[in-house]
Amino acid sequence: MNKFSFIAVFLFGAIFSLVTTEPTEDKKILLDFIQKIPHSSAINWRMNSLACSNWTGVTCDHQRSSIIALRLPALSFHGPIPPNTLSRLSNLQILSLRSNGLSGPFPSDFSNLKNLTSLHLQCNNFSGPLPLNLSVWNNLSVLNLSHNGFTGSISPSVSSLTHLTVLSLANNSLSGEIPDFCISSLQIIDLSNNFFHWNRASISRKIS
């Protein structure tokens, strides 16, 4: 084999390896999730297909070694999120399950998703209190839990989310005092249609 043939074979092998590399463990996690969550929409997830290229809602990192984004809006999921499924996607940065029929409490094991930057759970049927310790998501920039049935108050730990730019908790049944946010990065905040003790002057002071 001459030098140029060797280089051609090497490059082909490298490209083939890049294309076929797959986040096998993350695929197993998603298949576990989809088998356990009730849903009525067909989803094209198969173990023998390429998740990074072909799976609905899935985005992988550049090395195709991890799933970093999962966007599954309006796919008719309903019921609680099965525990010990999505929470095992340790490199997940973006999670969107908006506009489904998900219910039950906020998944406590989501505290394992420490790399989250965006969490979109709006327009579902979640209920119960918000997470008490929000500081576990210290990279979070977008948090949208609006249009659910969450109750109770907002944890003061929200002030630890120093990268937060968007916070929407509108259209829930939240109550109590609004904590001091003191987050310089915060650009959009929507707490409307809840039962907070507040007025326009006090909220202006709390987010300034």
TrEMBL record:
GO cellular component assignments: membrane
Domain of life assignment: Eukaryota
InterPro entries on file: At_inactive_RLKs, Leu-rich_rpt, Leu-rich_rpt_4, LRR_dom_sf, LRR_N_plant-typ
Cleavable signal peptide: 1-21
Keyword Endoplasmic reticulum assigned: no
Keyword S-adenosyl-L-methionine part of the UniProt annotation: no
GO molecular function list: ATP binding
Subcellular location as annotated: Membrane
Domain spans labelled Leucine-rich repeat-containing N-terminal plant-type: 25-61
Keywords, sorted A to Z: ATP-binding, Leucine-rich repeat, Membrane, Nucleotide-binding, Repeat, Signal, Transmembrane, Transmembrane helix
Record-given protein name: Leucine-rich repeat-containing N-terminal plant-type domain-containing protein
